[in-house]
Task: structure prediction
Amino acid sequence: MRKLLITGASGFLGWNMCRFATREWEVFGTVFSHQIDIAGVHVVRIDVTDFYELQEVFHKIVPDAVIHTAAQSDPNYCQANQAETKRINVDSSISIAGLCADYSIPCVFTSTDLVFDGRHSPYREEDPVCPVSFYGEQKVLAEMGMIKCCPTVIICRLSLMFGMPGPQAASFIQPMIQAMSEGRELRLFVDEFRTPISVGSAVKGLFLALEKGSGLLHLGGIERISRYDFGKLLSDILDMRSARLLPCKQKDVVMAAPRPPDVSLDSTRAQSLGFRPLPLAEELKGLFCIV
Result:
């Protein structure tokens, strides 16, 4: 079988990628601070910010392709720890792209909708980037650096993802569900819009990109929705209609990282390749096995 190296195997996306990939690949998943076991996956403990460790892993495995998901993806943490997070989000990404170029193998990089400022949605691949947070800026720097040293890299900008949690990482819906079930107030933005996507659809989109994609590719859901309306949809589907959802605006919540108002993605290009995310209600019902 062909060998696939997936970085960030203990993360929410990486864990789901590894589990899906074992159907057709011999999978090697990297971890750093969280040691995990994934059936059928060779787990490799490595600090991806150390170029020499990366170089050694490439030399030992000789992968046929790489999907790079490892990142510090909390915008607030990145805003407060810029030098530290740059090493994982920018420097390691460029190193991985360079090694993929050296080995002449495909490289897929998971970027974000937060490379945009949220004022001109929906965003297409050719639209100019203009991040408002340091995390978004890091992803832009990674994209630019990776393209420079590996022109064939496939950059997939992902929207907000949801799904069942892995052993070490969850999606944004798990804290929402916990707050609803405990009867706590849950403040959700009415003026922040995304195109959320299930992690299952995102994984399929990434493998589609590996197989057929090139350059930049947007992988978002088919519905533009606010955080508040997503919360209402989730509470309805889970029959938690008494959940204490409180509408609020971005300016009402003080956070380290600025937040763009609307980074909805236009995923037409990916759809032309066969990318088929389902409506949010169907994705959520399938996630919780609700008929």
User: Anything to note?
Assistant: DSSP finds ten helices and 13 strands in the chain. The longest strand covers residues 26-31. The mean pLDDT is 96. The domain at 163-195+223-264+278-287 is CATH 3.90.25.10 (UDP-galactose 4-epimerase; domain 1).
